[in-house]
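Troubleshooting entry. The earlier prediction with glutamine gave an output that would not parse, so I re-checked the input for stray whitespace and re-submitted. Clean input:
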Amino acid sequence: MTAPFVVAHLYRRRMNIYGDTGNVTALCRRLEWRGVAVRVVSIDEGDRFEFEEADIVVAGGGEDSSQLAIADDLVSRSEAVHRAVRAGVVFLTVCGTYQLFGRRFVTTDGSEIPGIAVFAADTIGGGRRMIGNVVVDSPWGSLVGFENHSGRTRLDPGQASLGRVRRGFGNDDTSGFEGAVVGNCFGTYLHGSVLPKNPGFADELIRRALRRRTGTDPDLAPLDDAVEERAAAVAASRP
Ligand code: GLN
């Protein structure tokens, strides 16, 4: 690879709670440990950026007020995001941005925040907040994270989820689904942050991004994940 690998951090200022920045750090370290140079680009409201120039776009969660603050900017980028998703750019959206990558989030007080409908899903706030550690069975192994949200996300029939909840809530308190996936675009409620504690999932994102960049299946050198696996086991053992 000649040009550095680009990790774009979308809404770093406003959408970044429960350690979501750790997702950017985990991706950078796992690439650097394998000798891949990485450039991190921060994109906040109003910043010009062409998503197809990114290898992975990461966006975190936030309070309803932060979601409201970024909503217009996100909607203005809707076409560009859809184009990038169709082009196979890897996206990881967590909680507050996951909700807005669906069609809409209606907050507990009834305000409707428009989304960009990458995922065929609606999120409605209200009732008991869903808080605690989550364990999810996914095609990329068992995923562990921390959730804290009022929004309940309903996927349309046919909309793929990230996995099935083994512990905790995930998308809502009834469906048993967690997250959503469209192509290389992932949505999840898992904070904590999710990638440092789930190295196999982090590598899946890296593998997909490198495959898009090089056109071939990358041969990722194995890393010593003993600390990461211990962190996941501890989180999984706690409510
Ligand atoms: N404000 C949203 C909710 O409460 C998202 C919260 C979050 O990102 N953790 O559902």
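This one parsed fine. The longest strand covers residues 121-138.
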